[in-house]
């Protein structure tokens, strides 16, 4: 369990609103060095803020309740509940929270599985930090955004898969596009309602 020092916002603090409200990011990944590196990169970008980290899906659910992030970065491979199953549960519990899946897998099959799970974005861990920041700054519930390094392969797979051909794709993102962070729409962070809070506590007991 991470210490409270990993959280930059007090429990149940009211989110900042207005045109300059930052994109609040929670990182859920059991790889501590990766989380630390991404956290530092996000904090260095205007309009973005890493509000905390978690090392498992169950801890991530709890942090969503405590920190009300705008975007959750979710690793696919974690002990306990895997990232794809956790994404599905989190989208059900807090539909206003975007989930950006990060993975060492870059083939279209995994991207498709993330889309089916309800992910708002898919980012390869092999990509650059600037690419990750660009995708995260634009991630929001809706059509899944895919990192620019994966766009060609993903677009080709959609053409050959009739079940996905009619789905509206997200606009392609350019690597390192810092302007996206400045233009991101004003978003009120998701507040988990009491009924959803009970569901999260059930998941914590199970996970």
TrEMBL record:
Region (Disordered): 1-21, 157-187
GO biological process, one term: phosphorelay signal transduction system
PROSITE patterns associated with the record: RESPONSE_REGULATORY
GO terms, molecular function: DNA binding
UniProt keyword list: DNA-binding, Phosphoprotein
Annotated Polar residues bias: 10-19
Domain of life: Bacteria
SUPFAM superfamilies in UniProt: CheY-like (SSF52172)
Pfam families in UniProt: Response_reg
InterPro entries: CheY-like_superfamily (IPR011006), EvgA-like (IPR051015), NreC/VraR/RcsB-like_REC (IPR058245), Sig_transdc_resp-reg_receiver (IPR001789)
Domain named Response regulatory: residues: 24-140
Species, as recorded: Friedmanniella luteola
PANTHER family to which the protein is assigned, alphabetical: HTH-TYPE TRANSCRIPTIONAL REGULATOR YHJB-RELATED (PTHR45566), NARL SUBFAMILY (PTHR45566:SF2)
Protein's recorded name: DNA-binding response regulator, NarL/FixJ family, contains REC and HTH domains
Positions where 4-aspartylphosphate occurs in the chain: 75
